[in-house]
Amino acid sequence: MRAVLVEPNPLIADALGRQLGMGKIRYDRQDWAGLEELLQQQGAEGLGYDAIVLGSVDDPARCVAALRAHQVGAAILCLLDRRCVATTVELLHAGADDVLVKPVVSAEVRARIEVARRRSRGLLSNAVRVGQLTVFLDGRDPEVGGERLRLSQREHAILGVLAAHHRRVVSKEHIYDEVYGLSGADPLDKVIDVYICKLRKKIAEATGGARYIETVYGRGYKFEAPPEHEDPAPALPARRALPGYVGFGRGVGEARLAG
Fold it and tell me: Looking at the structure, do residues 222 and 138 belong to the same domain, yes or no?
C-alpha cells in the first residue's frame, strides 16, 4: 500500500511517518504545493497512491475538494489537531473518506484506509467468496471449504489484489505496484508470474484441480471461480395458490374460482 503524507510541520510529519511505517504503508512526503504540481503534471491516474493523508494544511476542505475535482480516486484521510464536529462534517462533504484526531495509531490508520478502498471497489466486507474459496483482505490466510490454505506473505498479498478485483482483469503492473510499491519494471515483471504459478498450484491442490486464476494474454490475470464451482442461483420460491383459486383464463382479469 502506498500513501502520500501532506504535513508541513517536519516534527509532526516524522511522527506520522513512523506510524505509517509501523502500519506497513509505504509513503512519500509532500507539501500541498508539491502535490498540486504532481497532479498537474501526471494527472489523477499518474499519482499512483492508494491513500492521501492530509495533516495540518491550510483550508483542508478546499484541498480535499480540489483532489476530488481532479478525479483523484485514492482514499483521503484528514488528520485534525482537535475534535471539531463542524470541520469534520465540512471535510466529509468535500469528499474526504475519513477524519481522525491526532495522535493516530498505525493499525487504525491502515484499517481506515483499507475500509475506504474496499468501499470504492464495491466490497461490503473484508472477505471475498469466490466459488469454494474465501479470501480475507485483513491478513488472514484464505479458506477452502472452511479449511485454511497456507500462503506466503507475497502469495497472500497477490491473491488479495486479485480477489478485490474478482471477475475483472488485473494487469501485472498493477499487481506489482500494489504489492511492492513499484510498477512496470520489466526485469521484475517475472516475479508476479512466479507467484501466480505457485498460487495456481496451491489452489488446485486444495480444490481438486480447479483453476481459479486465468491468464488474459497481453492484459494480465483474472480471478474467478470455474463454472463447476460457481454458486448455483437461488431457487425461486414456489407459487402458492390463494384459497379457492384455480387459475387465470385467457382474458385479462378473467379468473376461474373453485366451486
Answer: yes
Last residue of a domain, one of 77, 101, 120: 120
pLDDT digit string, tens, across residues 184-242: 444 455 888 999 999 999 999 999 999 999 999 988 999 998 887 665 444 444 444 44
Distances (CA, A) of 94 to 109, 119, 176, 182: 20, 17, 32, 30
- pTM strictly above 0.70: no
Q: Are residues 133 and 98 in the same domain?
A: no
| Residues near 47 by beta carbon (within 8 Å), at least 6 away in sequence | 4, 38, 39, 72, 74
Domain carrying residue 172: 127-229
Phi and psi at 127, nearest 5°, equal -125, 135
Do 113 and 155 fall into the same domain?
Answer: no
Cβ atoms within 10 Å of 52's Cβ, excluding its own: 24
Clarify whether residues 72 and 96 are in a common domain. yes
Chain CA centroid to CA 22, Å? 20
